[in-house]
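queue> pop job 88
queue> type: inverse folding (structure -> sequence)
queue> payload:
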């Protein structure tokens, strides 16, 4: 027994020493990371610098918004769990804005209240732009619980963290899906909200929570209800790169481009018997560049004790058939089209009345040529056939 102990003690002590060295090394590396709670530029408020938390900033709209904020000299922290976003978009932004104190990326799940609270504790945020969400109507009808958790419950987590750490400004990414299928067009902000699918219902619940919370919280709140988003960065730095497994649920523009690239044999249009001029759905297509411009204007105009809600659209409806023809011209491809049954939870006609945002924020959509927006997006798609590359490769 004595002999055995004398042989194993040095070995055991060696393991302890190695563990201590590795622990010290991990702590050192952690302290060098931008999200650590030390005295980094992100952890303190600075006069003249607005620090914006962008949730879902690795996603399609969130990454474009982060790019615009960075161009406008905001300080940006992106939080994303990469379940729908792309680390490639983060890398692009990091390469464009490598200066200290400009951009940091934190890999975290907004459903983890402890992690979210820690992020708020370690960073001095002035405002939150909350984009993070799952956002496919069809998928929401198949997985409603995922949508209520990801959209409604996670928004509650964000609000609790904002309340605990005194962050008073919120720009919330909502949707025209909260209106459902209104009796009258165009849709105004006063149009009754009767969502008809879990996606719209989850977003409306989140809106209701925000509105109730803001009544006694000295909040500056801007709720932006998007219509159908298309396009990409005009300079070709960012684009839309949905997960391959989600293509069947994705935006029509992504399906058109996949068909033009030969990734799929053709385009499947769900629903050709709607009570519209040509039988296909009518939508208001808003370019992502215009959309993020609305966010920046909303942030600039946000004021304490004031809640504003805006529709963000062009004010003009286009049918799916019109969209497909514009996509054919933009890509130069003869896209095969197959018409199928309607998609569950969808509606015939939706387009906006954007007069309120025009009047109050001096915002008007500029990229209103459907073919031009699709042409810009098509250039990015052609040069990024595999999107941003593998989402599994991560660098903070």
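queue> result:
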């Amino acid at each position: 027994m004595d002999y055995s102990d004398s042989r194993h003690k040095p070995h055991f002590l060696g393991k302890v020493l190695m563990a201590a060295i590795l622990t010290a090394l991990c702590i050192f590396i952690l302290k060098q990371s931008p999200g650590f709670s030390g005295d980094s530029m992100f952890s303190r408020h600075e006069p003249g610098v607005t620090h914006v938390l962008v949730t879902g900033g690795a996603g399609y709209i969130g990454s474009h918004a982060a790019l615009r904020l960075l161009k406008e000299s905001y300080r940006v922290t992106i939080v994303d769990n990469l379940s729908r976003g792309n680390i490639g978009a983060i890398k692009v932004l990091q390469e464009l804005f490598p200066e200290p104190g400009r951009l940091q990326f934190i890999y975290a799940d907004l459903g983890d209240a402890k992690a979210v609270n820690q992020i708020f504790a370690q960073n001095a945020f002035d405002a939150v732009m909350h984009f993070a969400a799952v956002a496919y109507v069809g998928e929401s009808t198949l997985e409603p619980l995922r949508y209520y958790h990801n959209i409604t419950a996670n928004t509650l987590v964000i609000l609790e963290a904002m309340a605990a750490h005194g962050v008073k400004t919120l720009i919330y990414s909502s949707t025209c899906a909260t209106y459902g299928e209104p009796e009258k067009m165009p849709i105004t902000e006063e149009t009754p909200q009767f969502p008809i699918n879990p996606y719209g219902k989850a977003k409306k619940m989140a809106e209701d929570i925000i509105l109730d919370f803001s009544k006694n919280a000295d909040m500056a709140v801007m709720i932006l209800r998007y219509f159908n988003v298309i396009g990409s960065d005009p300079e070709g730095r960012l684009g839309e790169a949905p997960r391959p497994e989600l293509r069947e649920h994705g935006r029509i523009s992504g399906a058109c481009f996949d068909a033009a690239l030969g990734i799929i044999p053709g385009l499947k249009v769900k629903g050709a018997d709607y009570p519209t001029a040509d039988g296909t759905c009518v939508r208001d297509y808003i370019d992502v560049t215009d959309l993020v411009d609305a966010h920046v204007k909303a942030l600039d105009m946000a004021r304490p004790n004031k809640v504003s809600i805006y529709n963000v659209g062009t004010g003009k409806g286009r049918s799916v058939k019109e969209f497909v023809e514009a996509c054919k011209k933009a890509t130069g491809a003869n896209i095969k089209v197959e018409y199928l049954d309607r998609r569950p939870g969808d509606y015939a006609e939706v387009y906006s009345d954007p007069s309120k945002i025009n009047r109050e924020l001096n915002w008007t959509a500029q990229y209103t040529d459907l073919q031009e927006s699709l042409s810009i997006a098509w250039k990015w798609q052609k040069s990024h056939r595999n999107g941003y590359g593998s989402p599994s490769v991560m660098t903070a």
